[in-house]
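Section: protein folds

Sequence with per-residue tokens
===
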Amino acid sequence: MKLQNITTSKNGSSRRLYDDACGTAHALDLIGERWALLIIRELMLGPKRFGDLRADLPRISANVLTQRLDGLEAQGILMRRRLPPPGSTQVYELTEWGYEAEPIIQTLGRWATRSPAHDPTLPLSATSLMMSFRTMRDPAQLGGIDAAIGFRVGKEEFRMRIADGRVTVARGDPEGADLILSGPAVAIAAAVYGGVPIEMLEADGALGVEGDRALLARFVTLFPLPEKAAPPA
């Protein structure tokens, strides 16, 4: 049986598809092209404009981003719509089915962080950081916490709720939260995943902290990276 087949897609472009009835193979047909899954990740917390997606995925070209958006739209994974006035801007948004890809992204991300080659200090977007909190949470550490935590990451704002052993994160005004962290995503990730002392990040001007510092000390322990896989013998 042939493993791959050149097929003409609905938009007329040639794509290399798997000639395989397996659901995993079809999943790769849908989201296996370079950048496709990261575009879906960036839309997991709500719609974005084309320019916002390019800013969050700085290494993607405008041409490739257009192709991937068109392909994902043709597959029914995302849709485009225009915001009402005064915005009147076109945005891209996941469909209901598209949002169902979150567990795929979470499982894949958790599995990949066990790679000895994974480097948590590399740049990441604000959405990627927030998604990592939803993915890497340690239920055993969440007990007894009932708190709201806000984030200001560049121009983006988020609000996290920890309660009943669960973590929810959404876009929203962080004002009034028990703890607010302000700074680039890489600085917050350095504190949570890299073990960089909060005081050092504050002294460097990379991180701003408002609110409950005791909560902060506990917060940075809630999302441990899994143990690295053993290297081959």
User: Anything to note?
Assistant: The longest strand covers residues 156-163. The chain has a mean pLDDT of 91.
